Amino acid sequence: MTTAVSVPTPVVPRRRRTPEEIAAVPVAGERRVLLAAPRGYCAGVDRAVVAVEKALEHYGAPVYVRKEIVHNKHVVTTLQDKGAIFVEETDQVPQGALVVFSAHGVSPAVKQSAEERQLRTIDATCPLVTKVHREAVRFARAENHILLIGHEGHEEVEGTYGEAPDHTTVVNNPEEARTVQVADPERLIWLSQTTLSVDETMEIVAILRDRFPHLQDPPSDDICYATSNRQAAIKKIAPEADLVIVVGSANSSNSVRLVEVALEYGARAAHRVDFAEQIDESWFEGVGTVGVTSGASVPEVLVQRVLSLLADYGYGDVEEVVTAEEDILFSLPKELRTTLKAAGDASRGLGGHGSRPTS
User: Domain spanning 128-211 has what CATH number?
Assistant: First the structure.
């Protein structure tokens, strides 16, 4: 008796088309690019990246960083090349060494662990995330229960939750909003992760308020201005776009949301890439208008590389679609400002829109 043996079909690599071949494919109308503005680096990201760069300049390598300083592969790799060492937890940092806390923030327990290990710390938490932390502390002290809208496991949510774990419940999505249970529905307030989709957050809030009429709003909008602005820009572009390309990393919540928002608001297709080299030629079949944007942790150099590739593909006509102007600036962490002042370094005291990107 012969036993049949299953032999897998070998994978044949597809033939990559040349830029000239892609440019020759017929499309309806003219080839063009709609470039979103604002896009890329926000003030909190710029501040955090500069903090690591300045720490390396003044203290020397290595400088340890807990978690990724921001969620972008290019930024992390560039800083590693300069001498930064990224770790998951403070117990991986040698006793007495210097550690930078990422832009996403940390819980009090992490700070306590660093203190116990006698680590020197630079807190690069985005000031807008710090605001949410302070709100959580204040509302918990007033014996309110907090419904924290966000993605469980994300560093920012872990940090905020850690401020008041006995008074906080994480709500991940609309489905959880329909089933979450609370002890006292008359003493409730909602807070949110700063990088969420504005529309989805408001949908969750509406569901919660329908179930809990006494639910209080935070004193100010928790969703970061940069997240809101980048989503507003892609909403304007999406209805005209045959294809939207979002530059950003897979673990960047706001970058992933931009893809979802683009599709929701009418883009025929939308894809996220870390680098121009990841763009697939098959995406351009019949594509006339390409929308381009980037997440809030993406340096502009990566967007320019995408635009250069698109120009090779015949999409050299670029129109910038401006929906907001950003001029937010944040001071560098206080621990670092003291060092820079003592060293007479006045080259960078602020992080914000328009600042030098990591190249």
Answer: 3.40.1010.20
Q: Is 224 annotated as a binding residue?
A: yes
- pTM value > 0.85: yes
Which are the contacts of 139, defined by CB distance < 8 A and separation ≥ 6?
Answer: 146, 164, 167, 189, 191
Spatial distance between the Cα atoms of 264 and 45, rounded to a whole number of angstroms: 27
271 is in an annotated binding site: no
Catalytic machinery residues: 156
144 is in an annotated binding site: no
Contact between 58 and 93 under an 8 Å Cβ cutoff? The reply is no
DSSP letters spanning 178-207: TT---S-TTSEEEEE-TTS-HHHHHHHHHH
CATH topology agreement for domains 19-42+225-326 and 128-211 = yes
Q: Please indicate if the annotation marks 253 as binding a ligand.
A: yes
> How is 136-180 classified by DSSP, letter by letter?
HHHHHHTT-EEEEES-TT-HHHHHHHHHSGGGEEEE-SHHHHTT-
Q: Are 69 and 102 in contact (CB under 8 A)?
A: yes
Per-domain residue ranges of the chain: 19-42+225-326, 45-126+336-350, 128-211
353 labeled binding residue: no
Interval 235-245: pLDDT, tens: 999 999 999 99
Q: What is the pLDDT of residues 242-287, one digit of tens each?
A: 999 999 999 999 999 999 999 999 999 999 999 999 999 999 999 9
E strand or H helix at 131: helix 127-141
The answer regarding whether domain 19-42+225-326 maps to CATH 3.40.1010.20 reads: yes
C-alpha–C-alpha distance, residues 16 and 14, integer Å: 6
